[in-house]
Amino acid sequence: MTSKKKASAVLLRPRLYIGPAIAIGPGKIDLLRAVADTRSIAAAARSLGLPYKRAWLLIDSLNAGFGRPVVDTTTGGKGGGGACLTPLGQRIVAAYDALERRLNAEAVPELELLRELAKRPAT
């Protein structure tokens, strides 16, 4: 979905709390998507306007919460370092995407009402 379409649409972007240790929302999911696209935590952070340290802390919180890595990293060297989603990271993004699609499909009447309310002048 393009950012122009997102800006004009009314969308649900859920934030999930899975027990006391895991919180997943649009920011972490967008970061995981960016890591998958750029194959780099630093490049993913730059693309989202995040400091590298913040991006790493978000990924580290997911790693800790799930008890295993969501991103695999390789250290720099002649060819440079890199990062990619682990199978767990890929499954998290896929599950979140499916949930987001389902919620938005099921909530069409309510989302349309909210969009209409936003267009009306105050009475």
UniProtKB/TrEMBL annotation:
Pfam families given in the database record: HTH_1
GO MF term set: DNA-binding transcription factor activity
Residue span(s) of domain HTH lysR-type: 30-90
InterPro entries registered for this protein in UniProt: LysR_HTH_N, Molybdate_resp_trans_reg, WH-like_DNA-bd_sf, WH_DNA-bd_sf
Protein name: Molybdate transport system regulatory protein
Domain of life assignment: Bacteria
